[in-house]
Amino acid sequence: MKASLSLDPIKAALLCIDLQEEHRGDPRLLAMDYDRVLANVVRLQEAARAAGVPVLHFAYVVDAAARRPFHPVLADGRSYFSDKDDPLTAICPEVAPLGDEPLLIKSEASAFGDGRLAALLRERGVEWVFVAGVWTEACIDATVKHAVATGLRVVLVKDACGSGSVAMHQTGILNLANRLYGGAVADTGSASRLMAGETVQAWMVEGAVPLRFTYENAAELYAGL
C-alpha cells in the first residue's frame, strides 16, 4: 500500500550496484533499457551529493582461479562474466565515483557479503539505504535481502534498477516488494525528494505477500508500486 514516508538524510546512504560497462558492451550480458537505468542513477547521485548523502559504488569482479563450486567458466578458464581481466568490468563513466566516494569490489551477489559494507555503514550511523543498479533479481535482490537482515531500512528505487528483460526486472521488484519489511519501493523522483528531506508517498509492504502476481497482472502491479 502507498503511505507517507520521510527519513533523515543524515542517516541514509545510496548504494550503486554493479553499474558496469559489460551490461551494455557484452552481448551476453546486456541489461534491458540500461541507458534509462543509468540516467536515473545519475539523478539519484546528484540528489544524494546535494543532500550530503554518501554515495557508495560496487563492482562485481570474479577471479576464476578461486575455483568457486559450479561457477561458469569459458574454455580458457576465464569467468563467463565479470572476469578480473575484462576491461568491461569498469564502472560506466557517467555514474562512476567522484572525489573520495568508495568503490568496493565484490565477488558475490550481495554487496554485504564480505562484511565491509555493514561496518562502513555502522561507522557512518546509516539507518536507511537507497538501492539502485543491476541485475534486479540477482545482485539487487541479494543486497536488499541482506540489508534487511542486517537491520537496515531499504528504499528500493525501482526505475533505477534493471535486468536482462522487462519481465525479469518487474517480477524481481515485485518479489522484493512482498518482503521489504521496514522499507519502501519508490521511483527516482520520489527517492530524490526523500534525500532532500521531503515527505513522499511510497509503497510499503503490509502483512505477508500482498502482491500475488501472475503473468497477466505483473506489469499492472509493478506500475502501481
What is the makeup of the main sheet?
6 strands, parallel
Radius of gyration: 17 Å
β-sheet strand percentage = 15-25%
Distance between the termini: 8 Å
Shape: globular
Spans of at least 5 consecutive residues whose pLDDT stays below 50 are none
Q: Mean pLDDT score, rounded? A: 95
Helix content: 25-40%
The chain-level structural class is alpha/beta
Strand neighbour order, sheet with most strands: 4-3-2-5-6-7
Instruction: Tell how many strands the DSSP assignment holds.
Output: 8
Q: How would you sum up this structure, described in words?
A:
The chain has 225 residues and is α/β, with parallel strands linked by helices. The protein is built from seven helices and eight strands; from the N terminus they run ββααββαβαβαβαβα. The strands form two sheets. Strands 4-3-2-5-6-7 form a six-stranded parallel β-sheet, sandwiched between helices. Helix 5 links the parallel strand 6 and strand 7. It is globular. The termini are close together. 40% of the residues are buried.
